[in-house]
Structures are given as structure tokens and as C-alpha cells.
Write a structure and sequence with these properties.
The complex is a heterodimer of chains A (485) and B (171). Chain A has 485 residues and is mainly alpha-helical. Chain A has 16 helices and no strands. Chain B folds into two domains: 59 residues, no CATH class; 99 residues, Cupredoxins -  blue copper proteins (Immunoglobulin-like), CATH 2.60.40. Classes of the chains: A mainly alpha (485), B alpha+beta (171).
């Protein structure tokens, strides 16, 4: 445990760097949402878009959204760990610099080099474009990922070593004494620390596996005689991809643990069940990835069964621990203060929980057989991104700039929140309905009978963009205001 | 009713239930303590989720969804090969009412072999991945023309990678 003296020496959160990062993230999120809007409009025959450009936008949207979710999660983790351990400030700037280098490489690969191999870079598609993009474009895209991966490893190295030093090892930071029934809840690290330690471990492992398959793919690009087993590569890619996007949400939830108690008046404590849940999450996040390979029947049957079973089990810590606790805290509150920050953070938890339902159902092999790679899949993950992780990120941004001072802000905030929730719900519902109607995902051109849902979804996408633009505007004005103080 | 309609219905109901708990907690948050659920409720909830999980797992994994049962009786085998951006199918007509085994291969990148009925409803799929043969079995109950689509993104003409075959009663 950390003693009080060292706690007093803490430099505190790196607020300026994190505020700047969240501004960048907000702008990129808006841009990526516009890409999404354009794709749905093209599927709805509302605009004419060349398929090659559609798939470039698809690639940019996927990589951009996953990357930005990771960026916002990392910024939240970094900000709040600054409350508990002394972090080297240069590491965050190195992280951000490498991340932006990666973004430049990825955007260059896509919009200059014509790369359109999707964010999943499924081997051997990057090397085999059918004449649409060249080897260098594919290499730039993969190198962009490598830069972002190194950025995350640096950040986790710093967070991990400081947490280990301050809390007496990995087990201490994960509250294992409490899990074993040896420690007391009072001595356990705060929930944010437990969450940060767990995500640091699993996303470091995920990123290293990702780096290995990226390196293999890069060598294969220039030396095709260097063969890579496509099934092994696919396992590694989905392990990395699944762990990374989940880590984004698990890092963002730190904002809920740290900020919501300011509103309810009840501190969020590390209980035994909380500590057990996070140790299970650590295992489940890594063990569940075969649910992305349920239609590869050559995979060992036990691994596919494990994918289905762990998918279901993953819902238990989420619903019965984190969501349940939030509901308890809300019901116990006597006069919860609602503003844009608290509303978005609670929305984020609700969206994540609701989105887990269609995800778990699609994780069943028999369902997956008719739902895999239909629009059901973007349906469920857009719920826990738009209404989950991204809502948490926007909530954190609103909290960073402080409270709205005057009444007009109330109406503006309410309009922004309503547009975002209504737009998000309608947009994702259209994906789910289309999935149930067997509309495949990632098709540039849709059959005439699928066009209506795409058109409706385009309208809802516009609402999401309107709400998000209002959040970013409010954040920008708030930053200006706080800078003037 | 097709499996997809059931899945949509069940999902929407469960999603509404989860959302309902949050909405009711938000409503209660401004009032004095409205009786928050106690730890015993959480424990019961966890046990309930585990029990439901065991039942759902047992029912949904037995028989094994990817089982190839055709070895025990009359059957047909169809070889399908995906390539950028077309499907090669080694027979035009597939028998009705008997298990049909599809062997899915690819000559280049990963494709997704998906079969849709005349209403464009996806009946089944499997991945076609370089270096491997994924097998999937299906018994067709309706004669007619079935459409083959690509269910794994494979480049610029992914959406146009279609073919078809006919299902007819075996002579």
C-alpha cells in the first residue's frame, strides 16, 4: 500500500495533456461518424459512391473508431492513475506522438495509397488486393498499427510499473488479498486501480500478439516466400482486436468509478465481489476471442465451445457487478445531480450492458451460423460503442470542463443528449433489424429490398452526428472558458 | 418463424429489460433512498445467470452445431471454391431432403461461403480460409434456386461475389 506521504507528493493528473487529447479524439470521432454516415447513405442509394472509395472509408472508419476508442480509454486511465501514482509526464507525450504518427501512416495508406483491406487486415488480404492497392500502401497501414501498438505498450509499461511499485505487485493492485479473503476492503486499492492493472495486463498481452502478426504480415508483403498460416494469423488478429477494443471500454469505465461518486455522494469501493469480477474479466477477455471464429469448423471444437461459454460468462461481471453496483448507487442517492457529464457516464454503462445482450446471443454457435458477418454484428458493437464507450468518453470530457453555469446551457445540453441517444438507438436498431433480415455487413452495394433500412439509418446517423457535434462544441467552449479563468 | 426473427425478438425483449433497470434507477436517483437491491439480490442474480447459462449451453451445444452426420446415411458432397471475386461450385444441382456436405476452399484470401434461400434469408455459412477446408452440412427442405454470397470482406468486389445452385428432388 502507498503511504500518505508519497500520496501527498503526487503531481496529480496530467490535465492539460489529457484535455488536449480528448479534444483531438472528439474531432476524430466526429470525422469518423461522418464516414459512417456516408457509408450508410451509399447503401441507401442516397448518394453515389465508388465501391473502392466505400471500402477505403470502411477501413478508415474501423481503424479510426477502434483507435480513437483506445485513445480515449487510455487518456481516461492516464488521467485517473495520476491521482494514485506519480506518472512520468513525458511518457504520455511520447504515447500521443507515436499514436499520431500511426494515424498519419494509416490515413496516408488509405487515402493516398488506396488501401482498403479493412481494419482487421485479415491475412493475406493486405498482400492480395486484386490490383486495387500496392504493397507500400499495405505496409504503411501495418506500420501505422505498429506505431500505435508501441505507443500503448509504452503507456502500459509506465502505468504497470508504477502500480506494481505502489501496491506491492500485480496481485496487490488487483486486490488479490481481498479475493483470497485475507485483506479487508478498507486496505484494498480503489476500483480505478484494479481496473487499470487488469487492462494493463491484458492489453499488453493483446498488443504484443498483435505486433507479432503485424510483423509477420509485413515480412510476407515483401517476401511472399515467407509463409504465414492463415488460420493462426486469424486467431492472433482476433485475439488482438477483441482484447484491444474491450480494453478501450474497460479503461473508459474508470471514469464511471471515479466521477459518479461525486454525484451520488457514495464512494465506489473495492469489495470482494468487485475484485473477483475483475480477476475474472482479466481471464475472460483473453479466453473469449474464438467467438470470432465460430464459422471456422476446422478450429478445435473445444475452442469454439469455450468461445460460446466464455461469451456468456463475460456478461456476469458486467451485469451483476458493475451495472448492478451502479444501479445500487443510483437508487441509494438522495438527490443525484444530473448534468451532461453524469448523464453520459450512466448512459455509457447502460449502453454497454444493453449491447452485451445481442453480442452474447450472437456468440452462440447455432445463432452465429446465420448472424455472423450480417449487420447484426455492427449492430451490437455500435450499441456498446456509440451508447457505451464513446458516451463515457464524452461524459469524461464534459466533466473535465466543469459544470454548465447558466440556464441556456441546460436546454442545449438536453437537446444534444436527446439527439445522441435517439440517434444512437435508432441507428443501431436498424443494424439489428437488417442483421435479422440477413443483410451482410461490409457490402458497398445493397439489394433494393435492403435500401429502406439504410435510408432510415442514415437519418439516425445524422442525429448522432448532431448530438456529438454539440458535445464537442460544448467541450471547446468549456475549454476556452476554463482557460480564461 | 425463421431463427433470425426469434433471435431479434428475444434480444429486443432482454435489451428492454436491461434498459428498464437503468431507467428505473435513474428515476429513483433524485428521490430519498428508494430501496436499493441488497447484496443478497446480487448473489441470487449471479446464481440465476449461472443456472440459465448451464441450461442454454447444454441445449445449444447438443447436438454439436457443426456436426457432420451424413457419414451415417445417404448424402451429397459439394465442393465450393472462393476466389477474388467469384464462387466455383462443382455441381449445379443439389439433392432435396438429404444431408448435403459443403467443402469450402479458397485460392487466394479468406472468403465467407453463405447460402441464401429465395427470400434472401441466410440459411448457413462457413469461412473459406487459405490452406484449410471448412465443412458445413445442411438439409434443404425446399426445392428452388439458392444464392451463394460472400460473408467475409475480401476486397473491392466483395459484394458482387455471388453464384447460385438449384435444389431438386433426387431421381
Amino acid at each position: 500500500m502507498m503511504d500518505t506521504n508519497s500520496a501527498q507528493r503526487l503531481p496529480g493528473p496530467q490535465a492539460g495533456a489529457v484535455k488536449f487529447t480528448m479534444l483531438l479524439a472528439g474531432v476524430v470521432l466526429l470525422l469518423m461518424m461522418i464516414f459512417g454516415f456516408v457509408m450508410r447513405a451509399a447503401q441507401g442509394n442516397l448518394i453515389d459512391l465508388d465501391p473502392a472509395m466505400f471500402y477505403q472509408l470502411l477501413t478508415a472508419h474501423g481503424a479510426g473508431m477502434v483507435g480513437t476508442a483506445g485513445l480515449t480509454g487510455a487518456a481516461i486511465l492516464w488521467y485517473f492513475m495520476g491521482r494514485y501514482v506519480p506518472l512520468a509526464r513525458g511518457v504520455f507525450w511520447a504515447f500521443l506522438g507515436l499514436f499520431l504518427l500511426g494515424v498519419v501512416l494509416i490515413l496516408g495508406a488509405i487515402f493516398i495509397g488506396g488501401y482498403g483491406g479493412a481494419w482487421t487486415f485479415l491475412f493475406p488480404l493486405p498482400a492480395n488486393s486484386g490490383g486495387v492497392w500496392g504493397t507500400d500502401a499495405a505496409a504503411a497501414f501495418l506500420l501505422g498499427y505498429v506505431a500505435i501498438g508501441v505507443a500503448f505498450l509504452l503507456l502500459y509499461l509506465e502505468v504497470g510499473r508504477k502500480l506494481i511499485a505502489a501496491y506491492g505487485g500485480i496481485g496487490g493492485a488487483l486486490a488479490w488479498p481481498l479475493v483470497m479473503g485475507k485483506g479487508t476492503a478498507e486496505d484494498a486499492p480503489p476500483p480505478a486501480v484494479v481496473a487499470a492493472m487488469a487492462t494493463t495486463i491484458f492489453n499488453t498481452i493483446g498488443t504484443v500478439v498483435g505486433a507479432a502478426v503485424l510483423a509477420s504480415s509485413l515480412v510476407n508483403l515483401y517476401f511472399p516466400e515467407f509463409k504465414v498460416d492463415a488460420l493462426l494469423a486469424k486467431n492472433m488478429i482476433y485475439f488482438f482486436g477483441h482484447v484491444f477494443i474491450n480494453a478501450s471500454i474497460y479503461m473508459a469505465v474508470i471514469a464511471v468509478y471515479e466521477i459518479i461518486p461525486e454525484y451520488t455522494g457514495t464512494p465506489w469501493k473495492t469489495s470482494r465481489i468487485f475484485a473477483v469480477a475483475w480477476s475474472l474479466v482479466l481471464l475472460f477477455v483473453m479466453a473469449v476471442y474464438p467467438h470470432h471464429l465460430l464459422q471456422d469448423t476446422v478450429m478445435p471444437a473445444w475452442s469454439l465451445a469455450m468461445g460460446q461459454i466464455v461469451s456468456y460468462l463475460s456478461g456476469i461481471p458486467l451485469l451483476a457487478v458493475t451495472a448492478f453496483s451502479l444501479i445500487v448507487y443510483l437508487r441509494k442517492a438522495n438527490a443525484m445531480r444530473w448534468d451532461l457529464a453524469s448523464a453520459l457516464l450512466v448512459l455509457g454503462m447502460a449502453g454497454w450492458s444493453v449491447g452485451s445482450v445481442p453480442a452474447i446471443i450472437d456468440g452462440m454457435i447455432s445463432v452465429n451460423k446465420v448472424m455472423h458477418n450480417t449487420q447484426w454484428v455492427p449492430g451490437h458493437f455500435h450499441i456498446y460503442l456509440i451508447l457505451g464507450e464513446v458516451a463515457m468518453a464524452f461524459g469524461f470530457m464534459m466533466w473535465l470542463i466543469g459544470k454548465p453555469e447558466h440556464k441556456a446551457a441546460g436546454g442545449f445540453n438536453w437537446a444534444a443528449f436527446s439527439a445522441y441517444v435517439l440517434g444512437g438507438a435508432g441507428f443501431t436498431l436498424m443494424f439489428l433489424v437488417s442483421g435479422a433480415l440477413s443483410v451482410p455487413r461490409r457490402w458497398a452495394v445493397h439489394a433494393p429490398e435492403w435500401v429502406l433500412q439504410s435510408q432510415i439509418a442514415t437519418g439516425f446517423a445524422l442525429l448522432v452526428i448532431l448530438g456529438a457535434a454539440m458535445f464537442v462544441l460544448r467541450y471547446l467552449l468549456g475549454l476556452k472558458h476554463s482557460a480564461g479563468r | 418463424m425463421a431463427i433470425q426473427s426469434n433471435v431479434l425478438l428475444i434480444s429486443l425483449v432482454l435489451m428492454a429489460v436491461v434498459a428498464g433497470f437503468f431507467i428505473s434507477a435513474v428515476r429513483a436517483s433524485r428521490k430519498p433512498d428508494t430501496g436499493a437491491p441488497r447484496e443478497v439480490v446480487r448473489t441470487r442474480f449471479i446464481y440465476a445467470l449461472l443456472v440459465v447459462g448451464v441450461i442454454v449451453t447444454a441445449v445449444s451445444l447438443r447436438p454439436w452445431p457443426h456436426a457432420i452426420s451424413a457419414a451415417n446415411g445417404p448424402s451429397a458432397t459439394v465442393n465450393v471454391t472462393g476466389a477474388m471475386w467469384y464462387w466455383e461450385i462443382d455441381r449445379e444441382t443439389v439433392p432435396l431432403g438429404v444431408p448435403v456436405i459443403f467443402n469450402a476452399r479458397t485460392t487466394d484470401v479468406t472468403h465467407g461461403f453463405g447460402v441464401m434461400d429465395s427470400q434472401d434469408r441466410l440459411l448457413f455459412q462457413t469461412q473459406a480460409i487459405p490452406g484449410y477446408v471448412n465443412q458445413v452440412e445442411h438439409v434443404f427442405r425446399q426445392p428452388g434456386v439458392y444464392r451463394v454470397v460472400c460473408m467475409e470482406y475480401c476486397g473491392v468486389a466483395h459484394h458482387a461475389m455471388t453464384n447460385e445452385f438449384t435444389v431438386a428432388a433426387a431421381n
